[in-house]
Specification:
Number of strands: 28
Radius of gyration: 27 Å
Shape: elongated
CATH architecture of the largest domain: 3-layer Sandwich
Structural class: alpha+beta
Distance between the termini: 94 Å
Helix content: 25-40%
């Protein structure tokens, strides 16, 4: 009798340890439960690095309970004599722990299948590139897209489609690219899919302060999207080559770039469709922007200089960062500034609601820009030094500017202020700069 009591106590202990270990693997890596633990970024990374050991420990605990329960069931049905030594030392006196563990495994399987970020946030298995005419049969005119111009290619990516996996991989003008988007920050950017000449093999693993963390399986690096660099791993501190993406509607993007194509990656599996639908219903950007605070709890303090969920254009150069409130940019559609010692200009296209950030250096000159045809909503801007006219897309159209192109500056376009301030705590807030 004492042995049976001891076996039951052992099963209870193994169950608690196994369940606790499984939850430690799951809780910090699921949008459903991340607020319950809200552990540090270092802890999240440590758990993920040791996940195989933790899984082994979980299954050893659950496996021992299942074995004990199975022996008990076999013994109770005469398949094993009750005088058998194995039965006496290992058997659970009743099948309660066997069924409890089986049900727990079933529930955990469902939770991991539906809510564990490394399993759920994977890109669709099928994708293809559509012409604008083909895309018109799929997208509505007011659907928001992330637009990328690279070399001689122009591509759009549906924001709702990329919101679930948080990234797409693509090849544009023979360059492997990763287009990255985090819905909780409304932060979109593109980067070259390689580091130190080696291709990246990314997967989404978790979120820290509402921003996605990627894991590069090829080089064992962890990459924070808003940092734009490796935060843990062999290449810690190294930055990715980044490229800006615009956020606007499909209709307006086509007007700006009639030659655009669309990256189409439909949701095929049940899980893909289910998670995508959940994101669209629970946390659309329109709903997020009406909140007074981030969707998930954060570590650190919110910067109260601007409303947490207001939109900014975030620029960082040489460790110097600046957030430009979108309302400021709309009121001052031509903003000359200097960030990290580099002269830049923000150009806002009122007609298409697109913000571009460009270098003001051209050849050996530093240009100063001003509105040309309509100070409130310019479609062309003029540089004071040469009198050349430029489109708000950074293309020279007339005079000395004809045929020239301004260098685009990597930036985050229309992201939430709270996220920019959390990851760039020393950031300043942009202000109007006189053009004359």
């Amino acid at each position: 009798m004492e042995l049976r009591i001891a076996v039951t106590a052992l099963n209870a202990t193994l169950y608690i340890i196994g369940l606790t270990t499984a939850l430690a693997i799951f809780l910090p890596f699921s949008p459903m439960t991340i607020d319950l633990v809200n552990v540090s970024r270092r802890t999240q990374i440590s758990i993920y690095r040791h996940r195989r050991m933790l899984w082994a420990f979980t299954w050893i605990c659950f496996g021992a309970i299942l074995l004990s329960g199975l022996i008990g069931v076999l013994g109770s049905h005469g398949a094993m004599g009750t005088d058998n030594a194995i039965y006496h030392f290992l058997a659970t006196p009743n099948p309660t722990w066997l069924w409890t563990t089986l049900i727990t495994i079933g529930v955990l399987t469902l939770l991991f299948w539906s809510g564990y970020v490394p399993y759920v946030m994977t890109p669709p298995s099928r994708q293809r590139v559509l012409t604008a005419a083909e895309a018109d049969r799929i997208l509505h005119p007011d659907d928001v897209v992330l637009g990328l111009v690279y070399g001689n290619k122009v591509r759009a990516y549906p924001r709702d489609a990329i919101a679930r996996p948080h990234y797409f991989t693509d090849t544009i003008d023979n360059m492997p690219m990763t287009i990255s988007y985090c819905i909780l920050c409304n932060s979109g950017i593109a980067f070259k899919s390689e580091l130190n000449g080696r291709p990246l093999k990314l997967m989404s693993v978790t979120a820290y302060n509402n921003n996605i963390i990627y894991y590069d399986k090829a080089m064992d690096n962890f990459i924070q999207q808003l940092d734009g660099k490796v935060i843990d791993g062999p290449d810690v501190g190294k930055s990715l080559d980044t490229y800006p993406v615009a956020q606007t509607t499909w209709e307006e993007w086509k007007k700006l770039h009639p030659e655009t194509s669309l990256y189409y990656a439909p949701h095929i599996t049940l899980r893909d469709k289910m998670v995508a639908k959940m994101l669209q219903m629970l946390i659309p950007v329109a709903k997020l922007s009406k909140r007074s605070k981030p969707w998930h709890r954060i570590q650190g303090q919110l910067d109260s200089r601007l409303p947490a969920m207001s939109f900014v254009v975030g620029v960082e150069i040489n460790a110097d960062s600046c957030g430009y409130p979108l309302e400021l940019v709309r009121q001052h559609p031509v903003l000359n500034d200097v960030v990290g010692g580099k002269p830049i200009v923000l150009l806002y296209d009122n007609e298409h609601d697109v913000v571009g950030v460009f270098s003001r250096r051209l050849d050996s000159a530093t240009l100063t820009f001003e509105p040309w045809n309509d100070p409130g909503a310019p479609t062309l801007v003029r540089d004071q030094e040469t009198g050349g006219l430029w489109a708000v897309t950074g293309k020279g159209v007339e005079g000395s500017a004809h045929g020239k192109t301004l260098e685009p500056i990597p930036h985050f376009n229309k992201l939430f202020w709270f996220s920019w301030a959390l990851f760039k705590p020393g950031t300043r807030i942009g202000t109007p700069t006189p053009t004359g």
